[in-house]
Design a protein that fits this description.
Elements (H helix, E strand, L loop, with lengths): L1 E2 L2 E2 L5 E6 L12 E6 L7 E6 L4 E7 L2 E6 L5 E6 L4 E5 L4 E5 L6 E6 L8 E2 L39 E4 L3 E3 L2 E7 L11 E6 L7 E6 L4 E7 L2 E6 L6 E5 L4 E5 L4 E5 L6 E6 L8 E2 L2 H8 L2
Antiparallel strand pairs: 1-9, 2-3, 3-16, 4-11, 4-15, 5-10, 5-12, 6-9, 6-11, 7-8, 7-10, 13-21, 14-15, 16-23, 17-22, 17-24, 18-21, 18-23, 19-20, 19-22
């Protein structure tokens, strides 16, 4: 179990996961998926991954993760806090069960989806398959360079993205994977807001470089976006399979949170304070035509 960073605030708590010196994730994030609408008490089928590591977080509610390690030992981990993650090593059999009402599980993976990675019979644990070939994947994108985007920011570039819903009697799953057509950037950081009071306002900044996908994993809230040139627009989010794409250079605030809401944000950059514009007057100067 890994203790995640937790920034406590009277407007709600924030935790984040990223790799690198500031983060706690031991791998680069290649895929994020989340499981929701799970009937109470149902079990997600067991399986292991040959070479892929995962981190599992209870974003809402609670559930148990039953693990069988490569040496045959068995462990049961109860997840019920959003500031803790369970790291699953490659070759570990795991199943998720005992879901509470309105629970949501988020899973970060170190590799893209690959059917050959999956082991669906615990008797096959320890069998080998060829390591993924580096030449079979696209090279990592080089570091991006940016001119200041604020002057060219435009609300017309904002859009809603609807992810596929993989429905099953044991719950629904949606996926955001680097390189997928619906994901406009490589995911380098995940952060999320929880325990947010109904009258709270979050945000109040823009970014020089970071692009974001904002998703209401549980409950609902509004995102108000401002490009400094047109009247601000309000976007209501209340579906765990719908994301709001927010490009660089837009001022954003979040409000109108419902009780028990969880806001997950997938971002293109690791945390960097110089990437933030937190003064609205400076934002107005940067966006002035």
């Amino acid at each position: 179990m890994i203790e995640l960073p937790k920034v406590e605030d009277i407007r709600g708590n924030l935790s984040f996961i990223e790799s690198g010196s500031r983060g706690v994730c031991p791998f680069e994030i290649e895929r994020v998926y989340w499981i929701y609408d799970v009937p109470t008490g149902r079990k997600r089928n067991g399986r292991a991954l040959r070479h892929t590591s995962e981190m599992i977080v209870a974003m809402s509610g609670s559930f148990d993760v039953v693990c069988i390690n490569p040496d045959g030992s068995k462990e049961i981990h109860s997840l019920n806090r959003s500031d803790r993650a369970l790291l699953i090593a490659p070759g570990t059999w795991r199943e998720i069960n005992n879901f509470s009402t309105n629970s949501v599980a988020m899973v970060l993976a170190s590799g893209p989806y690959n059917a050959d990675e999956y082991i669906f019979d615990p008797e096959d644990l320890g069998t080998e398959s060829p390591q993924p070939c580096a030449d079979c994947h696209e090279e990592k994108k080089s570091a991006k360079t940016f001119a200041d985007p604020h002057k060219h920011s435009d609300l017309a570039n904002v859009r809603r993205i609807t992810f596929d819903r993989h429905k099953h009697v044991n719950g629904t799953l949606s996926v955001a994977e680097n390189g997928a057509p619906l994901v406009p950037f490589d995911i380098r950081r995940v952060f999320y807001l929880y325990d947010v009071p109904a009258d709270a306002k979050r945000g109040g900044h823009s970014h020089y470089q970071a692009e974001e996908l904002i998703i209401a994993l549980s409950g609902s809230f509004d995102v108000v976006l401002d490009d400094g040139k047109h009247a601000p627009e309000r976007f209501s989010l209340n579906r765990p399979y719908t994301a709001l794409y927010v490009p660089t250079g837009l001022w954003r605030t979040l409000d109108n949170f419902s009780g028990g809401s969880v806001c997950m944000v997938l971002t293109s950059e690791r945390y960097s304070e110089p990437d933030y514009v937190r003064d609205y007057e400076l934002f107005k100067q940067l966006t002035a035509l």
